[in-house]
Specification:
Blueprint: H1 2-19, H2 23-70, E1 78-83, E2 86-87, E3 91-93, E4 99-100, H3 102-114, E5 117-122, H4 128-131, E6 138-139, H5 147-150, E7 153-155, E8 160-162, E9 164-169, E10 184-188, H6 192-198, E11 204-208, H7 211-219, E12 225-229, H8 230-238, E13 244-248, E14 257-259, E15 262-264, H9 268-283, H10 286-296
Bound molecules: arginine.
Length: 298
């Protein structure tokens, strides 16, 4: 370094003499040289460190991806899918006694796309989340993505938009969200409709394991109305159209909800595979066909 500097100095000196600089100027410039060299060295070192960090973090990501793929529930031949077949048209018990509906058909199509067998397990809606990662691998149940649920599970991309509806007797005075105050409201236990009632001033939730039981109690006059998702509300009302009507939540200022498939927390590989299948079935028209068959024909 010393030798290098003295060579540079002599060079600078000679050049500046030629250029007509004073000895003082040259000395000043020379003084700055070591500090400039140090700055340059520091800059190079910090760039190298940054590059090193980027490489290390990219390698870390690859390792995480590999580990996630190795430990993923996706490696099983059969995916056990939990549902609650009390939620037409998304899931209900079909004529052959097995769960059927939009969600079930979508899940089976995804299984076919992914080369996985799908085994459907019907259970109570409010047991689904706790069963993910033990009794079941994933859950599809017209389940709304909520911040609270996200603490326990990971969700796929959303596959359907919904909103709560209010089912009321035909002659009911309920017309606005304000009219729900202080009422007894039938809901399915552990659903977003159930959570909503907790926020309505003075209202009491009558909780049922099945939405249809809440509707029956509305027909019997045991509850004032039922809060349940829009599509099941339409199905239930269509079975009793002389007595009941459904007010769609959008007219009452309720928030939009988004259905997604729930999976164990942290199984990034499974989420990636499921989202990939969902996107593929949307792209190839299968999704639209199922919407037509199960939802629009309801
Ligand atoms: N979307 C509502 C929720 O996530 C209700 C879902 C009920 N689903 C069912 N299969 N019973 O809470």
């Amino acid at each position: 370094m010393r030798k290098f500097l003295s060579v540079v100095l002599t060079g600078v000196l000679a050049l500046s003499m030629l250029a007509g600089c004073s000895q003082k100027d040259v000395e000043k410039a020379a003084e700055q040289l070591p500090s400039q060299a140090a700055e340059a060295a520091k800059e190079i070192a910090s760039q190298a460190a940054e590059a090193g960090e980027a490489i290390a973090s990219a390698a870390g990501d690859v390792i995480k991806d590999v580990e996630s793929a190795e430990n993923s529930a996706f490696n099983k031949d059969t995916l056990v899918v939990g549902t609650n077949a009390e939620f037409p048209p998304f899931e209900y018990v079909g004529a052959d006694g097995n769960p059927d509906g939009f969600d079930i058909a979508l899940m089976k199509a995804m299984g076919e796309y992914l080369g996985k067998k799908i085994e459907v397990q019907n259970m109570q809606f409010d047991s689904l989340i706790a069963s993910i990662g033990n009794k079941i691998d994933i859950a599809i149940a017209g389940m709304t993505v909520t911040e609270e649920r996200k603490q326990s599970v990971d969700f796929s991309d959303s596959y359907y938009d919904a909103v709560q509806s209010v089912i009321v007797p035909k002659d009911s005075a309920i017309k606005t969200a304000d009219d729900l105050k202080n009422l007894t409201i039938g809901v399915q236990l552990g659903t977003t409709g159930d959570f909503m009632v907790a926020d309505i001033e003075g209202a009491t939730a009558s909780q049922y394991n099945k939405g249809v039981d809440a509707v029956n109690d509305l027909l019997n006059g045991r509850v004032d109305c039922v809060i349940i998702d829009k599509n099941p509300a339409q199905v239930f009302v269509s079975l009793h159209h002389d007595e009941l009507v459904a007010i769609e939540g959008t007219e009452l200022g309720f928030e939009a909800e988004h259905y997604a498939i729930a999976m164990p927390k942290g199984d990034a590989y499974l989420v990636e595979m499921i989202n990939g299948a969902l996107a593929a079935l949307k792209a190839d028209g299968t999704y639209d066909e199922l919407v037509k068959k199960y939802i629009e024909a309801q």
